[in-house]
Design brief:
CATH topology: TIM Barrel
Radius of gyration: 17 Å
Structural class: alpha/beta
Strand order of the largest sheet: 3-5-6-7-8-9
Helix content: 25-40%
Distance between the termini: 12 Å
Largest sheet: 6 strands, parallel
Number of strands: 9
CATH architecture: Alpha-Beta Barrel
CATH superfamily: Metal-dependent hydrolases
Length: 244
């Protein structure tokens, strides 16, 4: 693993973010994230100030709401990169997707439809927040047998994992990787999400850190996160962000 940090313990405020963010919504007009190229530029410049050099942005794909396709996402990525180059914003911007676990996604995986992934075939997915999907285990098994590495977005936010941590451990045992939202460490979503995030870090069940940035407020929260003791503990884990 790369040595990302100084050998001597730095001051609390100087702890660094991973260089690569793997969860955000920075392609304008595709989902509930940014809506204009100008907004994307402002937010991405903030990421650069925080030390990020690569952003893998992940528009929502949801069959009954955000009907994004590989083509629409990659076309918008090319448009955004051209704009950033024109504005002389130095960053590597790539795109995958945040897939909602529904029957359409299971069918796409089963039919070998190409899906936008990142890194070593990491497949970012989310579920409803209240109850564990009935097809969760089926999906994980199917995706794994098809060569994907399933990455569950923000597991700390799901009520069904907050109330039954054994379910989180079961998913880990099935090979699911966990991506923690940094702002969860501040209690941004809920106290339950914050406590679950802390427990995941204590157990070492965090494989990726992500911003899940939708707007300027979200990127501003990251500076506060830097001073959080659980952030300091999280970045000491063998995270996969900087292997990308």
């Amino acid at each position: 693993m790369l040595n990302w940090f100084r050998k001597q313990r730095p001051a609390e405020s100087s702890y660094n973010f991973p260089f690569v963010d793997i969860h955000s919504h920075l392609l304008p007009g595709l989902d509930d994230g940014v809506q204009t190229l100008e907004e994307s530029e402002v937010i991405i410049r903030e990421f650069r100030k925080l030390g990020y050099t690569k952003l893998i942005t992940t528009p929502h794909v949801m069959s009954d709401f955000y009907r994004n396709s590989n083509d629409t996402i990659l076309q918008k990525l090319a448009e955004t990169n051209a704009y950033l180059k024109q504005k002389e914003v130095s960053v590597t911007l790539e795109a995958a997707a945040e897939f909602y676990l529904d029957e359409a996604l299971v069918a796409r995986v089963g039919n070998n439809d190409p899906l936008l992934t990142f890194g070593k075939n990491y497949l970012l997915f989310e579920t409803n927040f209240m109850t564990e999907p009935l097809n969760m285990k089926e999906f994980v098994f199917l995706a794994t047998t098809k060569g994907y590495k399933p990455v569950l977005a923000h597991p700390e936010r799901y009520i069904y994992l907050q109330n039954n941590f054994a379910k989180a451990e079961d998913l880990i045992g099935r090979g699911v990787l966990f991506q923690l939202n940094l702002s969860s460490l501040l209690g941004y979503y809920s106290k339950g999400a914050q406590q679950t995030a802390q427990k995941l870090i204590d157990k070492g069940y965090v494989h990726f850190l992500g911003s899940d940035c939708h707007n300027h407020q979200h990127v501003q929260l990251l500076e506060q996160v830097r001073r959080n003791k659980y952030f300091q503990k999280a970045v000491s884990l063998p995270l996969l962000n900087n292997t990308l």
